[in-house]
Amino acid sequence: MLKTVRGHYKDGKIAIYEKPQVRESDIIITFLNSEDAGLIDLQAKGITKEEAHDLKNRLRSFEEDWNAEGMELYDRI
């Protein structure tokens, strides 16, 4: 099974934003362009970094459902 986790690369080091639930695995690292990285101009949206972090934490309980097999059909609606 494939698992994707987001992270950040800087000065030869990779930091991942969440701990994957695997003991050991080969990995593939894909570098994204900034515009492809899903970066959002929070200031343009009228939200602070702290508010965005809080919102992300509150929505985390839905993550399993959003990522469930077959849910990509709703992306086309």
Describe what this molecule looks like in 3D.
- With 77 residues, the protein is of the alpha+beta class.
- It has one domain.
- The chain has helices at 42-45, 49-59, 63-66; strands at residues 7-10, 13-16.
- The protein starts with 6 loop residues before the first strand and ends in an 11-residue tail after the last helix.
- The model has no long low-confidence stretch (mean pLDDT 83).
Task: Please provide a brief summary of the model.
With about 80 residues, the protein is α+β, with helices and mostly antiparallel strands.
**Number of structural domains:** 1
Instruction: Kindly name the structural category.
Output: alpha+beta
Taking all residues together, what is the mean pLDDT?
83
Determine the strand fraction and express it as a percent band: 5-15%
Estimated radius of gyration: 15 Å
Helicity, as a percent range? 10-25%
> What's the count of strands?
2
Spatial gap, N to C terminus: 27 Å
Oligomeric description of these chains: single chain
